[in-house]
Write a structure and sequence with these properties.
Helix content is 0%, strand content 48%. The strands form three sheets. Strands 2-3-4-9 form a four-stranded antiparallel beta sheet, with no helix packed on it. A four-stranded antiparallel beta sheet has the order 5-6-7-8, with no helix packed on it. The chain has a three-stranded antiparallel beta sheet with strand order 1-11-10, with no helix packed on it. By secondary structure, the chain is an all-beta fold. The chain contains no helices and eleven strands. Strand 6 and strand 7 form a beta hairpin. The protein is globular. The N and C termini lie close together (11 Å). Bound molecules: FE2/S2 (inorganic) cluster. FE2/S2 (inorganic) cluster binds next to loops.
């Protein structure tokens, strides 16, 4: 069974922004895409840059700041090279004022 942990408060991450969190030993980034929250592993699968330092692009995705790989925030799928492996995605839920993620 998934264990959700609180990582932020509702409203902490404005639309169009992302923030990095450490959950256990895992670095994740939490993204607000037009009010919908997505959690992904924050380490690019190409050369381990922080994706949370990248930009949202195409209304769906994050572009890695290092070499421009693009990942779908909802599925983690690679949309543009040079990355070839998807990033892990994690379930997100709102509990009261808390944003919770299951890693
Ligand atoms: S480290 Fe992300 S594209 Fe190279």
């Amino acid at each position: 069974m998934e264990t959700f942990v609180s990582v932020a408060k509702v409203g902490d991450i404005p639309p169009g922004k992302a923030q990095q969190f450490k959950v256990g030993k895992t670095l994740i980034s939490l993204w607000n895409l037009n009010g919908t929250l997505y959690a992904i592993n924050d380490i690019c699968t190409h050369e381990e840059e922080y994706l949370s330092e990248g930009e949202m692009v195409d209304g769906c995705c994050v572009e890695c700041p290092a070499h421009g790989a693009i990942f779908d925030l909802a599925t983690g799928a690679v949309k543009a090279l040079p990355a070839t492996e998807p990033v892990q995605t994690y379930p997100v839920r709102i509990e009261g004022d808390d944003i919770q993620v299951a890693v």
